[in-house]
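To assess whether the prediction recovers the assembly geometry, we first specified each molecular entity separately, as shown.
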Amino acid sequence: MLRYLLGRLLTTIPTLLLVSFGVFVLIRLVPGDPIVVMLGDAADAETVRTLREAYGLDQPLFTQYWLWLLRALGGDLGRSITNGADVLPLILSRFEVSAIIVVIAVALAAFISVPLGMVAAWRQNSAGDAAVIAAATLLLSIPSFWLGLLLLLAFGLKLGWVPVIGFVHFAEDWGLALAYIVLPVTTLVLVEIGVLTRMARASTIDVLRLEYITHARAKGVSEFSVLARHALPNAFAPTWTLIGLVLGNLLGGIAVVETVFTLPGLGRLLVDAIFARDYPLIQGCLLFTAVVYVLVNLVVDLCYPLFDPRVAAE
Amino acid sequence: MRKIGLIVACAAVAIGTAFAGEAVRAQTIRVAMNSDIRSTYPGVNRDSNTDWVMHHIVEGLVAFTGDGSVAPSLAESVDTPDGGKTWIFTLRAGITFHNGQPVTADDVLFSWNKYLDEATKWRCYKDFTEGNAAIESIDKKDGRTVIFMLTEPSALFLGLMARIDCAAGAIFHKDSFAADGNWSAPIGTGPYKLGEWRQGEFIELEKFAGYKPRSEPRDGYAGARVAEADKVRFVVIPDGAAAKAALLSGSIDVYPDISVNDVEELKARDDVKVDVAATMGLSGILLQTTDPLLANVKIRQALAHAIDTEGLVQALTLGNARPNNSPIPVVSAYHGTPQGALFGYDPELAHKLATEAGYKGESIKMLTTKRYQTMFDVAVLAQAMAKQAGINIEIEVLEWATMLDKYLAGDYQMMSFGYSARLDPSLSFDMFAGPKATQPRKVWDNPGAQKLIEESMRISDAGERRKIFDRLEEMFRADVPMLVLYNGPDVAAYSSKLVGYEAWMAGTPRLWGVSVAK
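The predicted structure of the complete assembly is given in tokenized form:
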């Protein structure tokens, strides 16, 4: 297991190097200059040139990349052009906000989707199954920003049950913090339930057709035990993979939800950085996102033996 | 199952109690802001939101009034005994910084020496080191008197000094800098001082108890600046719909720049008030005079007559702005009869002029962006109107930073664009006039006009300046280097619990003289 872990971690290094170089090059290929954005309509060529020098943006690209990489290897992702803040602490503080929302939302979505999908598969082609499929498809199709705004208007504005904007850290006031995250979490749960339910249903249908399930039923095992003890461990694996992908993807930033609910998360930080062409911040955010994605999927893979001991043996 | 129900019920009570507790707070005015400020270093690392906040914390020697003129702020008096070359500022007595230290001439020297140091990267550095308002020396005469000597007489000096985007040359205490010389935090003289800045969330200001206001009533950024509320919190809300919902739910008190489309809806409510003020910002369409097709003045004139300025402005602003084809804003004292005339909407004349120019129906590309919705809307309406006159415009939508690049390089045929407010007509013309060979971003390359603009910067006499501006107007309309359409309105919505909030021509929120009704 340790060898496997080390091997996987070693393979992430060239991946991250590639990501860092790719991001560095791609963002500079996009038209737009951080200094021109800073100066706006008052930008003149001479002032732009002077400020580019001051920020080191006039150096050859390879020099800029090399210097940035050397610092990044030491944990220093540079300073934001926009506000001069150190990039890594800024990313970590924003990631905390995104992570809280995402982890709670994905956990809740999984908690709801898996049993729902399994029950739908158990009652395949019934009215209940059709209803679940329809609901899942509808939720899959709804854009998250539209759903978020709808919830905001209904529960925040019309009913006044929850605050409309802002964020409070759990360490400050856990009750208030819950109030502030109810709507964004609900939005994400509803958005992700659709895809997770469909996957859970599909994999359960496949497993319920297998002979060992028929054997279990023939032995007189209750339907609950058939589903929970015999079908679930095998049906859950593909859904677990999907949960990992969803988690990794969302942890990289839920910019739309963060914008609608005014959350100071990683997604908004990245979007603002792109608009401002804040190169160090963009590079830092994307590199960080890549690291998170890789680590999350590593954890997902390491958990597989819990469901299928054969994977551990391999 | 009972246990689960109990847990859920407890959680609901906790959430409800906590949320109810949030409603009881100190007297804090909460203002929506669409993005976080860039820094607390006024005039150096800034954008318009940064200016909004910093002008509550710092003050300069002079400030803009509500009609765009300049009045003393930290200065008790401003004299120029020689017609604009020497400027003598006498500080008001008894004013202090937020740290209790008195404001002296040494502090003025300290602040201005910082600004005039190229390493500071002050936004207005070039204005005071080159050109008409270049400063030759700054000396102190006594503890409260500072003398600025310019290289030549300047009519613009005070206006440039009062520039909002340059923090009005704010005077700050030397302890605003850390021991290593880097910027730390602003210690200014404003009615509010810096409280807490939670990046990406909000920036909160606290009332400065030691503030000594001027005796004149509030007038723009000048006059009395009395902090009535204990705190002001600028809350970062990037999404317009979320900001509107926050205002209607009472989560914020002021939404300084609402969409004109929301005006009627909000005016109909009892819990919200709306205030509209004409600003000096400019919306228009740039025409690239070096483009092979648009180089012919007749095609530019054709475009001017193809667009129904009145109809366009009515459609875009729902009657909240006046049409204006002049680079001089409608609220400027120099906006008179020549400036008030509109290009006549005449599609037939437009078609005739285009034909005379040799136009054969080729597609003309207009760049725009959705980052600022009005720029996009102007492009769409202009395209439709031009089509009526037989002129084909193709719209290309770019991301804002990309469009700025093209603006800077002059790489466009037409561009739907907007300029931030320039509070003096010389600056209004100067922002887009200049030699394209060395400044490709400039729209109007006319050496004769350039000479007149430079002359207007030297002359102080209002009558003489008006004559120059009227002549420039004539030349501008003959050349048609751009189609000015209107000056955008500042539309603010605020809670009816607030007393004293007003929109004004600079389009920035002012939270002094504003209180929460009990």
